[in-house]
């Protein structure tokens, strides 16, 4: 159940109209990394998380709902930035209060020019926000359809990346407005992306084991190989030397991949090196992880009739 409160989560303000920036801000309204995409992403992920991870379901629904609040803030800001564009643009330019503050015909024509940069404001929405990105491309579920995999460790990693992209988008937007009130709103929204990043990261850390994502283990013959796939100077770093971050294996640097592929019969004869893992331990871990995940889901989903609302006992009492 959603309940709308008329006050915004953050009191968005605008000092002056700015149709051009309103157009840019659409990127966070209906763009790939915008607030609607974020809200729908977490909303979709929450359903499959509810039974195996009721605590994460609660977090995902809370953050999804907050993202809808942010969508409202962005939409309200766009609406305020478009003051004077509603209805007949020329007429509004002559009569809106803000236009009386503009100095002369040139300033008014500039205002009109900025508005025409985003024709959807004039011909489609009547001066309100459009559910598009900054280039007028309609919002699409394709932005998020790969983000709900039914494996929460995968989804949470996707969420961390999404919050990173949203944060940098607000950072870029801040460079295109001098309005202190708009900056204040954008800084609030950007900061919440930082907060959400940490929430998803903390939630991920509570699911153990969480690597590799899913159930099946990677083949130990290939999980620590680094192929030098370019010519020129050799570049080494923690991504191809030393110990790998998650599995704790020693990186095997393949300086001449073509020769290595030929010598190992297309890697079929590749031997296990630099790791304690083996094919046998993998098979054991595959079985253990399958049992853990299956039991986790089975225990969280009682057999028989069910209902979504209420506590677990409510489902048991249904007849």
Characteristic terms for this protein:
disordered C terminus; two-stranded parallel sheet; mainly alpha
Give an overview in words.
This protein is an all-alpha fold and 319 residues long. 52% of the residues lie in helices and 2% in strands. It has helices at residues 19-25, 27-30, 35-49, 54-81, 89-95, 97-101, 104-116, 119-123, 152-173, 180-205, 257-263, 279-300, 312-316; strands at residues 225-227, 252-254. A two-stranded parallel sheet has the order 1-2. The longest helix is centred in the first third of the chain and has 28 residues, at 54-81. The radius of gyration is 26 Å and the shape is globular. The two termini are 25 Å apart.
Brief write-up:
The chain is mostly helical.
Basic shape = globular
Major beta sheet summary: 2 strands, parallel
Low-confidence stretches: 314-319
Strand content range: under 5%
Chain-averaged pLDDT: 88
What is the overall number of helices? Answer: 13
| Strand element count | 2
Order of helices and strands: HHHHHHHHHHEEHHH
Give the CA-CA distance, first to last residue: 25 Å
Task: Report the structural category.
Answer: mainly alpha
Radius of gyration: 26 Å
If strands are numbered along the chain, what order do they take across the biggest sheet? 1-2
Q: Percent of residues in helical segments?
A: 40-55%
Q: Could you give the topology of this structure?
A:
Layout: H1 19-25, H2 27-30, H3 35-49, H4 54-81, H5 89-95, H6 97-101, H7 104-116, H8 119-123, H9 152-173, H10 180-205, E1 225-227, E2 252-254, H11 257-263, H12 279-300, H13 312-316
Parallel strand pairs: 1-2
Helix pairs in contact: 1-4, 3-4, 3-9, 4-10, 9-10
């Amino acid at each position: 159940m959603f309940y709308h409160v008329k006050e915004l989560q953050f009191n968005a303000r605008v000092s002056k109209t700015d149709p051009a920036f309103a157009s840019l801000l659409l990127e966070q309204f209906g763009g790939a990394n915008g607030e609607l995409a974020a809200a729908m992403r977490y909303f979709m992920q929450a359903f499959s998380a509810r039974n195996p991870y009721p605590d994460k379901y609660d977090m995902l629904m809370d953050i999804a709902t907050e993202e809808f609040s942010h969508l409202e803030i962005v939409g309200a800001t766009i609406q305020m930035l478009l003051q004077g564009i509603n209805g007949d643009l020329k007429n509004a330019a002559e009569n809106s209060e803000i236009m009386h503050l503009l100095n002369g015909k040139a300033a008014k024509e500039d205002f009109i020019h900025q508005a025409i940069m985003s024709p959807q404001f004039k011909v489609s929405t009547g001066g309100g926000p459009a559910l598009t990105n900054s280039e007028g491309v309609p919002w699409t579920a394709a932005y998020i359809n790969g983000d709900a995999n039914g494996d929460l460790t995968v989804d949470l990693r996707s969420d961390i990346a999404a919050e990173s992209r949203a944060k940098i988008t607000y950072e870029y937007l801040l460079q295109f407005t001098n309005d202190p009130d708009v900056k204040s709103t954008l800084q609030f929204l950007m900061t919440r992306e930082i907060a959400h990043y940490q929430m998803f990261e903390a939630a991920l850390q509570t699911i153990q084991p969480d690597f590799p994502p899913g159930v099946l283990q990677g083949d130990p013959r290939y999980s620590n190989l680094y192929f030098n796939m370019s010519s020129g100077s050799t570049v080494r770093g923690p991504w191809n030397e030393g110990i790998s971050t998650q599995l704790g294996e020693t990186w095997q640097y393949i300086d001449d991949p073509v020769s290595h592929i030929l010598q190992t019969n297309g890697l079929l004869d590749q031997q296990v090196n630099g790791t304690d893992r083996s094919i046998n331990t993998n098979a054991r871990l595959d079985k253990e992880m399958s049992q853990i995940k299956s039991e986790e889901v089975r225990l969280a989903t009682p057999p028989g009739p069910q209902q979504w609302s209420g506590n677990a006992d409510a489902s048991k009492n249904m007849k």
